[in-house]
Specification:
Layout lengths: L8 H15 L4 E7 L4 H9 L7 E7 L3 E2 L17 E2 L6 H8 L1 H6 L4 E4 L11 H10 L3 E7 L8 E5 L2 E5 L15 E10 L12 E7 L2 E7 L11 E5 L15 H17 L6
Parallel strand pairs: 1-2, 6-12
Antiparallel strand pairs: 3-4, 5-9, 6-9, 7-8, 10-11
Amino acid sequence: MDAIRGRSFLTLKVADLRATARRAAGRLPVLLMNSFATDAPTAALLAAQPPRPELALSTFAQAISVRLTEAGDIFTGADGHPSLYAPGHGDLTDALRRFALAALRAAGVRTLVMANLDNLAAGVEPAIVGHHRERHAQMTVEVVRKEKGDKGGAPALLDGRLQIVESMRFPPTFDQDAIPVFNTNTFVLELEPLDRDFPLDQFCVKKKVDDRDAIQFERLAGQLSAFLETGCIEVPRAGPDGRFLPAKDAEEITARRAQFEEVLGARGALEE
């Protein structure tokens, strides 16, 4: 489904990054992490685009895992084959090390911005990157004020350090609304500290596949904060400077179209 003006999330994200590069009079390397199901189509879509001298676009694929039944057996789909899935954005560092880290080093890249494609407001903001670099942080987490019904990881002190703690990891008696902000899953990361193994937790997630319950295990990139020197920066959710407008289904896309127009228009991403 298109986001606005007959344009996909991917083409709008690329346009936003291109506008950022033009404003900075620079060139941005852009890496798109895909699942096994989307890697080839994404590469084909990028290849069909006109040359973009402001951007260096490339793709890389994350790992593949196999769903299980609740009894722990391999889950087979309606086609009789094992049901495969991509294990979540917690696979970022492993996938980078397999496919992209050496090339980034060779290109002189020192700092990465990680953002979800379905959050069109999460672009590269030089002021936030500058704040991160000035603090000499290894990881900076963008957070926003909570609104009614918001769920997600929140910054909390755990084992003596600031970490992003997912909602299911808090004690049942803890009032999570006592923390007024939560994680947007947009991070600024230093490249060099990522070249190591991170013992991220595997979270059990139940999914409906072919109208049956299936189990998959996912890791979350926010837990990198348990191992990296981390700080948070509060950003606006919406408005011309907004940075958190996620849309995962048709209903959310329809509801947010005016906000997409406002944010991307303010950045000059809709001019091409």
